Amino acid sequence: MASAILLLPFGSLSTAHAAQGASQIDAVLVLDVSHSMSKSDPGKIGNEAMKMFIDMLSTKGDRVGIVAYTDEIQREKALLEIGSAADKENLKGFIDQLNRGAYTDVSVGVKEAVQILDDGADPDHEPMIILLADGNNDFNDNSGRTQAQSDADMEKALKEANDKDVPIYTIGLNADGKLNKEALAKLSDVTGGKSFSTNSADDLPQILSEIFASHLELNVVPVDSFTANGSYQDVKISVPNANVLEANISIMSSKPIEAKLLDPSGKSVPIPSDDVLQSKSKSYSLIKLLTPTEGDWTLQVKGVNRDKIDINLIFNYDLSLAMDPLAKTSYSKGDKVKFSSYLVSGGQKLADEEQYSNMSAVLLVKDLDTGKSEEVPLQNAGDHFEGTYTVADEHDYEIKVKAEEESFFRETDPVTITAKSGGTGQTTPTQPADTEKKPFPLVPVILGALGLVVLLAAAYFIMRLLKQANRGFVGQLVIEIRDENTGDKTSPQYKKLTAFKGKLLLHQLLQLAPELKETEKVVLKPGSNDRIVLQNGSTCTIEKSGRAIDASRELEMKSGDRITVSLKQVDKTIFIEYLV
Q1: When comparing pLDDT for 444 and 79, which is higher?
Q2: Which has the closest alpha carbon to 208: 220, 199, 190?
Q3: How far is the C-alpha of 48 from the C-alpha of 284, rounded, in Å?
Q4: Is 274 helix (H, G, I), strand (E, B) or coil?
Q5: Would strands 126-133 and 73-81 be described as parallel, antiparallel, or unpaired?
Q6: Residue 387 belongs to what H/E stretch?
Q7: How many whole angstroms separate alpha carbon 216 and alpha carbon 14?
Q8: What is the dihedral of CA 293, 298, 302, 306, to 10 degrees?
Q9: What is the Cα 121 distance to its own chain's centre?
Q10: 457 — alpha (psi -120 to 50), left (phi > 0) or beta?
């Protein structure tokens, strides 16, 4: 059987995906190399599929580790950051050298994969584990190992994976009918991954592409299968818009294939070339297009006569989904809460109505008291999504927006609201009517001089807080952002401060860009004498005149002062100048 899988994982080329959209991956591939797998996968298609997964990843930035196990670790490779084609060849060569061994203990492989991520995962990357196994244990009688010991090790590894938000994707091979599907499904269910099973190793490339898509919030778009006739056959590859940064075309075949490529203008594009990379294996070829032009490309495939070729399209976009902040987080039963959500590209709100035209969005509402979930449709307003949710009960709720079209979906970070009495922002109940008849309802008659002093001091403190909260800013900030990977710098942005009072988050001035989220703990407050006071509660490094500012201390800025804010989660530096 032959299958071709087209994957378009953008985002992986230039920026680290904020949750979503442009994320980079720390993946550990876990392979059962016991002799039992020889019956399930005699052609080692599983190894080939794992190698194809590696080729799907970004040309730079993603990291991969490998664990091969039986009832003990046979071989392993710590996380290797992909910086060149040679790094991918290194990883694939490692897989080619794996040999079969006796006995099986699935917990050994999972435990080691969790440990590898614990030792070296990048907190800015999306971690994941992919396990290929049949789910059955076969202990060596001489080792004294028991199922209870294996179960205990597995439970500990699963807890650690779940605590650190590491999803485990499991692939069960059932060629001999002995798959322990329930055991593998549990690993995925507990950690938020997905479980797959198949009777044929030939399905593994399809499954790996679905895992790749699921982890990056994409949808697999099916294309009609065809049978090779020994001549070149055309397959249309439609690149929907300029947001696609990278396209992977994976062609699986039991025998070599030949491929040609035409761009949307009909011009032949050499394979390989500057913008077209190619990698080969004994059972697949992968063609990677870098920043492909929008439009209909033509892939011409020449396969062995009568081979069936299956094609899937997976498009990824330089897009994430953001939600406007709520005015408050505390409501009453029956209140209508307004929501507005929009796409973000390159740190800016996307105004391309064509991108929105084929999309729909819903609110995903989870009642945290009952565990029940519901979906509330949102209206497509052309350049954003909007709608309301009517609070059903006096409960706590977790709410996020999901926007979707045929080839991808995105979700916002969840927000939590409460409708319980006594929650933050709730109106204080009025005093009973009879209390108005009492001459001194709040201050006891026995209040002495010391009590009065305390009250006066408290009143003075409260008045100062109110005055501070209502104090306005003056002047403006001039902001520039430099991408440290490319050296590119944005044009100066002038942000007037006069509309803000009390305090201001730097993230607000950066239009709440998801990739700049770590700046939400950099706080600005109005100071005396037309100055502003900066307080850094984030992990960002802030420098003034080349010296790092102690994050625990406030920094007072006067007109003309300049600072730099270096982000940790993305390779960007923010330049800020205060002007009055």
Answers
A1: 79
A2: 220
A3: 8
A4: coil
A5: unpaired
A6: strand 385-390
A7: 16
A8: 130
A9: 15
A10: alpha
